[in-house]
Write a structure and sequence with these properties.
Layout (H helix, E strand, L loop, with lengths): L1 E6 L4 H14 L5 E6 L5 H10 L2 E5 L1 H11 L4 H9 L3 H10 L4 E5 L3 E3 L16 E5 L11 H4 L9 E9 L5 H8 L11 H13 L1 E3 L5 E2 L3 H5 L10 E3 L5 H8 L1
Parallel strand pairs: 1-2, 1-4, 2-3, 6-8, 9-10
Antiparallel strand pairs: 4-7, 5-10, 6-7
Helix pairs in contact: 1-10, 3-5, 4-5, 4-7
């Protein structure tokens, strides 16, 4: 099983810790395909390859050259990818790889318990899996559904981890979505919103929040209790430091 990840220089250490936990707890053999956001150094590459089962690392410059042709007729997609590193999650994974099933995991999700078939679909109607979220972390506002009557999303999802059937990735939908003028305050949520829009179109499901969730401080205080642990915690924002201090 190949799992994609987006990695930057700042997060090499936490990425190794978290991806190693994914590898060690999986009953399936895991290899990683990592995508450089443009900040990785030659030393970073050496460290990553020495500590993780890496199939390939796509350097940003290399990926830029390949995707220039793919996105030449999709100006909104091309512009978004050039301006926002999260564009790598939208475009590089489905366009650079040919596997029919594409799995992705952020570099700050730590796995506590063994698992199998994590990146498998519950039924034939499901073509994408996303994480559960406590809120609607999207760039959309309520009035956008009146402005664009056909607009639909799956509620309360997060794109920190996903699994999608490649044939259902829709570049035309991405171009339509990214060509709209979403509120500038919420542009950092565009990639996550796109995956929720795609899920509504192609048939999506959500991993249970009992399995993988964003921890609260009280959750961290209970980590010594094996029975209180979920399958994994998603350590976003300032919680990343917890990984290096307590989980390395």
């Amino acid at each position: 099983m190949e799992v994609h990840g987006l990695i930057c220089h700042r997060d090499v250490t936490t990425g190794i810790i978290c991806y190693r936990s994914l590898k060690q707890n999986s009953w399936d053999n895991i290899e990683f395909i990592l995508h450089d956001d443009g900040s990785l150094t030659s030393k970073d590459l050496e460290i990553l390859k020495a500590n993780l089962p890496i199939k390939k690392i796509f350097l940003k410059k290399e990926a830029d050259e390949i995707l220039a042709d793919y996105l030449s007729n999709y100006p909104a997609c091309d512009s978004y990818r050039k301006k926002n590193p999260y564009g790598i999650k939208i475009f590089d994974i489905p366009l650079l790889e040919k596997n029919e099933i594409l799995a992705y995991c952020d570099s700050d999700i730590f796995f506590f318990k063994p698992f199998k078939n994590l990146f498998s679909f519950p039924n034939r109607e499901t073509n994408i899996l996303l994480l559960s979220s406590e809120d609607e972390g999207y760039c959309l506002r309520p009035w956008h559904f009146f402005m664009y009557p056909g607009l639909k999303v799956i509620s309360k999802t997060n794109a920190g981890m996903f699994c999608v059937k490649r044939k259902y990735f829709d570049l035309d939908l991405a171009e339509w979505f990214l060509s709209k003028k979403w509120p500038s305050k919420f542009l950092y949520l565009c990639d996550q919103t796109f995956w929720a829009v795609l899920a509504a179109k192609i048939g999506g499901a959500i991993w249970s929040s009992n399995q993988i969730r964003m921890p609260l401080k009280k959750d961290l205080a209970q980590l010594d209790d094996q029975y209180q642990k979920p399958l994994a915690f998603y350590f976003i924002g300032g919680l990343k430091e917890y990984i290096k201090k307590h989980l390395s």
